[in-house]
What we know:
Elements: H1 2-25, H2 29-56, H3 60-83, H4 95-112, H5 120-143, H6 146-190
Amino acid sequence: MRFLKTLVLGSLFATLGEFLFCVLVRQSLPDYLFTLAAYPLILALTYWPLRWIEQRMPSELSADVAVYAVAGFIGLAIEWFMIGNSPWANPEANDLGMFAYWATVLAMPRLLLDARPCIRPVRRAAVVAFAAYAAAALTIGFLTPQPLRLFVLAWVVVLGYTGMNLFFVRALRRAWKAQRRDLASAAAGGAV
């Protein structure tokens, strides 16, 4: 069930960026429809390697960091070597934005499915923030004149998905504090 939820959530995170670029910028509905099939496949292919990394980390906190970083770098590899948005082929591509986009697509489902109590407020806030971001991005996209859409929407995507990555930082901070608190409790319990 977690696998299917990951595919659905990751696809939802991906579809906003793809709709903005495929439909509103390039005006290509077939390209957008292709992405609706491609993202579940990409998510399926990356799910097990990310789970493998997660399970081999010495702590939940290190797993959080590793999965986030690897997800972003997998995305950069896809952008650079499969799509052609490498620094040498397309110097105008924004690597930070691509990293943030792919970290959101590939790792945010894990954050939203995380059952740890310390992460619960972050999960809720991330869902609300993405819904607000999606509404704002679509409004901006539809209201922006076609000649300006590439420039405007590129920055909307970079800023929006980078903003979503702040929820990873918030979750890591909360998980770190919970881990420290648990270690302190264990130490205090053993020092009787």
